[in-house]
Design goal:
Layout: H1 3-19, E1 29-33, E2 40-42, E3 58-60, E4 66-68, H2 76-85, E5 91-94, H3 98-106, H4 120-125, E6 131-132, H5 140-155, E7 162-165, E8 169-174, H6 177-196, H7 206-216
Parallel strand pairs: 6-7
Antiparallel strand pairs: 1-2, 1-5, 2-3, 3-4, 5-8, 7-8
């Protein structure tokens, strides 16, 4: 995709998330890694994702120096660390998704998996999602913790596509804005189901999960 096409796609995804209630006010941000070492596009700081304009998106180089557009999101360092730690990531989306934030307030399933594998599509499309302890927005310590979680998951042979920042919201990544959005949607829906059942639904069995691994290549 050309840079202009990626700018348009970021705006489309931001508007879709806003219209469907996955983001609100000026919460959340989206970035895309550009090909051939041309840096990144990222939404401006304090921008509403529902009303983005392609020309206002910040273009930064690989070191984070701004080249054009409005001032980059204050979470730029976190996005950079995700891209550095995960070669497969080409788009990162962060939101303050209501059900997922509520889950961290009510209590996650466990620190290395915020929700249990209760549906096949969660296992297939999302996978393990570790909890990152609370840091203030923009804190570089959060970026360090997320990068460490990505590296640890790869070392275990089960790469992750998402982390959950306690009290703030999820960071998800994939090979395109549309694919990253789908991960976010599936993760938020699973949190909603888990809360609706009083956090008591039984996980899929190991045999059922192994079948998803063998049939669909699920990362679990």
């Amino acid at each position: 995709m050309s840079i202009d096409a990626l700018r348009t796609e970021i705006c489309r995804v931001g508007h879709s998330l806003f219209e469907r209630g996955y983001v609100h006010a000026s919460a959340g941000n989206i970035s895309v890694r550009l090909a051939e070492g041309r840096g990144f596009l990222i939404t401006p700081t304090d921008a509403c994702l529902g009303f983005l304009q392609p020309h206002t998106l910040a273009h930064v180089n690989a070191e984070g120096t701004q080249l054009s557009g409005e001032r980059a999101s204050k979470t730029l360092a976190l996005h950079q660390r995700i891209y550095a730690a995960e070669p497969e990531a080409h788009c990162v989306i962060h939101t303050h998704a209501t059900q997922l934030v509520a889950l961290t307030l009510a209590g996650v399933w466990r620190a290395d998996d915020i929700v249990p594998p209760i549906t096949p599509y969660f296992v297939m499309k999302v996978g393990h999602v570790p909890l990152i302890p609370y840091h203030r927005p923009g804190d570089r310590a959060a970026a360090d913790a997320v990068a460490a979680a990505i590296v640890a998951a790869r070392a275990r042979g089960v790469p992750i596509r998402a982390v959950m920042l306690e009290r703030l919201g999820p960071n998800v990544w994939h090979d395109s804005p549309a694919s990253a959005m789908a991960v976010l949607e599936e993760l938020e829906e699973t949190a909603r189901l888990w809360l609706m059942t009083g956090r008591s639904a039984s996980p899929l069995t190991e045999a059922q999960i192994d079948d998803l691994r063998r049939t669909f290549g699920a990362r679990w």
